[in-house]
Amino acid sequence: MTRARRPRPIRILAPAAVAPRIRAEFNRRQFLAGAMALGGAGLLTACGGDSDGDTASPTGDASPRATGGDLEGQVSIYTWGDYDSPDVLDAFSEELGPEIRLDAFNSNEEMIAKLVAARGTSGYDIVVPTGQFIPQMVENDLLEPINKELIPNIEHVDEAFLGLEWDPENAYSICKAWGTTGYVYDNTVITRELTDWNDFIDAAKNEASGRTSLLDDPAELTGLYFWANGINWTTEDEADLQAAEDFLVGELAPHITAFDSYPGGSAIPQGQHVLMQSWNGDARLGIMESPDPDRWTWVLGAPATQLWMDNWCIAKGAPNIEAAHAFINFVLAPENVIEQTDYIGYHTGAKDVESMAEEAGLEMLDLIFFTPDQVATMQEGAVNSAQQRIVDIWNKMKAAAGA
Amino acid sequence: MASAGAVELTAVTKRFGEHTAVDRLDLAIEPGEFIALLGPSGCGKTTTLRMIAGFEQPDEGDIRISGESVAGVPPHKRHVNTVFQNYALFPHMNVAENVAYGLQQQRTPRAEIRQRVAEALDMVQMRSLADRRPAQMSGGQQQRVALARALVNRPSVLLLDEPLGALDRQLREEMQIELKLLQARLGTTFVFVTHDQHEALSLGDRIAIMRAGRLEQLDTADAVYARPASAFVAGFVGQQNFLTGQARGDGTFDAGQIRLRSSRNGEGSLLGGQVRAAIRPEYVTVEKVSDAYPSGSAPAGSALPENSAVGRVASVAHLGETMQYIVEVEGQDSILSRIPTPQAPAVNVNDAVVASWDADSVHLFQAELSAPQHPASRT
Amino acid sequence: MRAPKFLLAVPAWAWLTAFFILPVATVVYFSFGYKPGLFGTHATDVLSLDRYREALSPTFFTTFVNTLRIGILGTLICLLIGIPMAYWMAVKVSPRWRTLLLALVIVPFWTNFLVRTIGWQVILAPEGWLSGLLQSIGLRDAPLAILYTRPAVLLGVVYNYLPLMILPLFVAFDRVGPALREASKDLGADRLRTFLRVTLPMARPGMIAGILLVFIPLMGDYITAVVLGGARGNMVGQLVASQFQAAQNWALGSAMAVLLIVVIAGAVLAGGLLAWLVSWPVRHRTRLGLADLENIAVQERA
């Protein structure tokens, strides 16, 4: 389950008119997917065992290794591409000393595969997995316990985003950012009002047929069906999965033009489709960059949708464990939270971040922040025994749509 | 067609940018003739050949083959075939397929193709290698295939562009004899381009000597050798001793200490001024001074007889059938002499000698303002 | 004592082993394994052919047919454009311009191919500048509807892969040289016959190289097709990647990768066989050898 957040435009020296185009080209997932295709298996098998840091014994010892000692000279972060404000990173190095080394991954699976292969010698200090992958990582001894005494700024994190199912004690993770799934439609073509997933499906089969895109992610496809039909989207029940397959492959696939995880990159600004399933931050950017923003309407998935959350974690064997704690503490400070939100366009889980964003004058806040009622409809994902099945459904649906 | 195989060039000019490769060339080749186009590199002989083949179009003038103008006719429609310098055999075809290629283009029936390919390969004794690819053969074998490939089409005119240039000497001489015999047997017009005077002299019924895009002389080997039309021809065909002299008005010329007289050109036919005299080395005899003049010393200066020079032997070389002497003469270019080995005098290096020749062997030419340099004399 | 000759081949074999044989052998080995539980990616303690049975699903066939169609059509179009283009560059263009043209062919390689492909997405978009241009000069009365169609996929494929076809063809045509073309014309063949019987057969190695250079990577490429074809650009490569990444099932992904290798090799062999069969009549008509000449008696020509 690869979901990435659309950050705000990359700052580049180029005329404003071409900026959206260039930015679209640097769309993280596609860009890295290209690199993957070019590099072949290189990325998959790459082993980052170049660190001379101490190798932790894989005993599953739950007591934190960090003691609040002197900060090391650097800190190495393995995260989603373009997922932190450079200003915040610079400020950290300036104020506290350690230099930051960034490395990007394309999917949770890729990041996990690398950590597994390195067996605690990856050299990374901080990694940023999505919530449902954390139990797997703990079980495989890929994470260090966090010493929360060294992260006093955790008090600024909204309690709604602490103690979640995958890490009830926040022993290994602290919320970095979260988002959700909905869709965007062209209200000049779809003139009726759409409000939920069933409307989405209906429009896709009718006025948006052949001009609809879905997220290129297996769980989002089965999720679409489950959310629309009141089924828990983490279901492992074969009857549910078969029903999802029948619907997606047999009914919906012929109407789908593209599987695009980042319609905000170019599809919305260039009007490539009229109905697009998308993540909230990406939709916000696409609409903001459209020459005609009023044409696009955002709908949060209903009656249910997902909540994905990425988390700050510390990699097993982190060579700079003190600096890693210092960094996490630093980005949770309120003055840095708003910088981060402004840059990535997603809620960081901090208390009062909405009012701070309003004060700072950020646009289209309804695509970043949601009401408690809305949040209550959002369900967290899970990595479970259905994983292979939903990937198969995803492939079948793509085959059917491409036939 | 009465004139089948005739080639006629009339005032043909070909320019490549600023450079004029062929300059108002007139050349008439008789049907069934073996003609050698001879000249130094860059003289326009290959361009002339390529215009006959159709690979180049003349800028001016007309070319007629078998009596018909070929202006604008592309190569594949000319009844002319070429043997190329580097054979240009098709590497992806075997010998038989190479030879059959031209016939296939004429849509010749299969049975006839086989018959004629077999004939052509027999003609060059290559039938047994019919399955070979060009890369599997020696240069001489490829040469024969190239010949068969061109002749199998029974062209009116066969063009040969330095076809023997890449062969070693012995093979080249064998091929020369074969070519000559083949041409005599077939009666096809052969136009043979070469820069090798021996090849031209031994093969050509007539030899066309070209220089700077123009025809210097067109005549038989004997005539070109014995009666060169210009100093250039004299120097290019065979070797020559060149002496530049000043007319004295009495039919003799002074070249430094040497007084020349020619009985070939009518006396006074050259009006005086500067002349160039050419004397072939084989007409120059060498004698020790002590043998020629029992007194032991040669007469000095103008007392010396006409058509003789006194000098010192700089080199004696045994060339097999002849002995070659180089005699250094004070104030002159050295003089080259070749004497058949049985008649060769016993002369050693540093001997004082008299070199002499008959008035009949002296060719006189009006000296040109810018005399061309000849590679002729001292090889 | 001289070193034995095989030592000279050691670097080449070491290279081949390290960068081809070992990785492929690993993939083949994994393909006989299985996915052990939720968090494992592969295990090989029990070997079976089960992954191949799973891989050979209708999904795989549908996707594979689509991939093969794009691969074959794309390669053919590249060949049809590449041959005249390379011939023109090698034969007709003066050497002065040839270098420039070659540079122009290569220049696109200096940018990331994904960026180039997305560039086309921008151009072909319904609200892109091409669409606007065509509408403003009256060639279309509706926005361009080519993006996310098969023609768009083929356009992207040709754009990305054409240089790989042109370069080997250019080298091949260039190496034929003018002498053999002149010899052919001298023997009575016009331009077309010369091209068909001399230039093209001699350029065959270049043609084969070009076809392989385009077809093989194209069969594994799922970026070009997806960016411009959307759902119509669904490729087997994506299927393989999905098993490694999303499903974390390296065993099944390996089996699919092995199948892909096998079918690519099969397609190449089938293509070669087809070309051989199609050209058989021509070869038969022009073939001549010693055996054909054996029993021919030669009469002397008068």
Number of beta strands of chain C: 0
C-alpha termini separation of chain C: 65 Å
What is the third-level CATH name, the topology of the largest domain in chain B?
Answer: Rossmann fold
> Which percent range fits the helix content of chain C?
over 70%
Indicate the radius of gyration of chain B in whole angstroms. 25 Å
Structural class of chain C: mainly alpha
Amino- and carboxy-terminal Cα gap of chain B: 47 Å
Largest sheet of chain B: 6 strands, mixed
**Spans of at least 5 consecutive residues with low confidence of chain B:** 370-379
What's the pLDDT, averaged over the residues of chain C? Answer: 88
Structure, briefly:
The complex is a heterotrimer of chains A (403), B (379) and C (302). Chain B is an alpha+beta fold and 379 residues long.
Layout of SSEs?
The complex is a heterotrimer of chains A (403), B (379) and C (302).
Chain A: H1 19-25, H2 28-39, H3 42-45, E1 74-80, H4 86-96, E2 99-105, H5 108-118, E3 126-127, H6 134-139, E4 143-144, E5 174-186, H7 197-205, E6 212-214, H8 218-228, H9 238-252, E7 256-259, E8 275-279, H10 280-289, E9 296-300, E10 305-315, H11 321-331, H12 334-344, H13 353-360, H14 372-376, E11 378-380, H15 387-402
Parallel strand pairs in A: 1-2, 1-3, 6-7, 6-8, 10-11
Antiparallel strand pairs in A: 3-10, 4-10, 5-8, 5-9, 5-10
Helix pairs in contact in A: 8-9, 8-15, 9-15, 12-13
Chain B: E1 7-16, E2 19-29, E3 34-38, H1 45-53, E4 60-65, E5 68-69, E6 80-83, H2 95-105, H3 110-123, H4 139-151, E7 157-161, H5 169-186, E8 189-194, H6 197-203, E9 206-211, E10 214-219, H7 221-226, H8 231-236, E11 241-247, E12 252-255, E13 258-261, E14 274-279, E15 285-288, H9 289-292, E16 308-318, E17 322-328, E18 335-340, E19 352-356, E20 363-366
Parallel strand pairs in B: 3-8, 3-9, 6-7, 7-8
Antiparallel strand pairs in B: 1-2, 1-4, 4-5, 9-10, 11-12, 11-14, 12-13, 14-20, 15-19, 16-17, 16-19, 17-18
Chain C: H1 10-31, H2 50-55, H3 58-92, H4 95-106, H5 113-124, H6 129-136, H7 150-186, H8 191-202, H9 204-220, H10 223-229, H11 236-244, H12 250-278, H13 280-286, H14 290-293
Helix pairs in contact in C: 1-12, 3-7, 3-9, 5-7, 5-10, 7-8, 7-9, 7-10, 11-12
